[in-house]
């Protein structure tokens, strides 16, 4: 199942996001806090790994279940 994933990257990623396409459904909107990216993708382990790869520069905004999963993974990494 495809679902909407929305996440924010910090301002240092702005230039990179302007020139890089991770997914065909990707849309990016810049705001004061950085860049909000939306994609319609399948939930899979690779998605979690992709988002965790941005470290503290990434905040998952939607869906809430994915946000919780990323937060739990970050706690495990800190241990």
Q: How would you describe the overall organization of this protein?
A:
The relative contact order is 0.24. The protein is 37% helix and 34% strand. With 79 residues, the chain is an alpha+beta fold. A 4-stranded antiparallel β-sheet has the order 2-3-1-4.
> Which percent bin holds the helix content?
25-40%
Uncertain segments are none
Shape: globular
Question: How much is the radius of gyration in Å?
Answer: 12 Å
Ends distance: 32 Å
| Order of SSEs | EHEEHEH
Strand order, sheet with most strands: 2-3-1-4
Q: What count of helical segments does DSSP give? A: 3
Question: Got a strand count?
Answer: 4
Task: Summarize model confidence as the mean pLDDT.
Answer: 93
Biggest beta sheet summary: 4 strands, antiparallel
Q: Structural class given helices, strands, pairing?
A: alpha+beta
Strand content: 25-35%
Quick synopsis:
The protein is α+β, with helices and mostly antiparallel strands and 79 residues long. It is built from three helices and four strands.
Features:
37% helix, 79 residues, four-stranded antiparallel β-sheet, alpha+beta, 3 helices
Task: Set down the secondary structure blueprint.
Blueprint: E1 2-9, H1 14-19, E2 27-31, E3 34-42, H2 45-52, E4 58-62, H3 64-78
Antiparallel strand pairs: 1-3, 1-4, 2-3
């Amino acid at each position: 199942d495809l679902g909407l994933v929305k996440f924010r990257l910090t301002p240092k990623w702005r230039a990179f996001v302007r020139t890089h396409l991770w997914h065909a459904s990707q849309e990016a909107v810049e705001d004061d806090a950085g860049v909000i990216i939306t994609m319609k993708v399948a939930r899979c382990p690779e998605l979690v790994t992709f988002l965790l790869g941005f470290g503290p520069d990434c905040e998952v905004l939607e869906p809430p279940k994915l946000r919780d999963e990323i937060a739990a993974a970050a706690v495990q990494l800190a241990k």
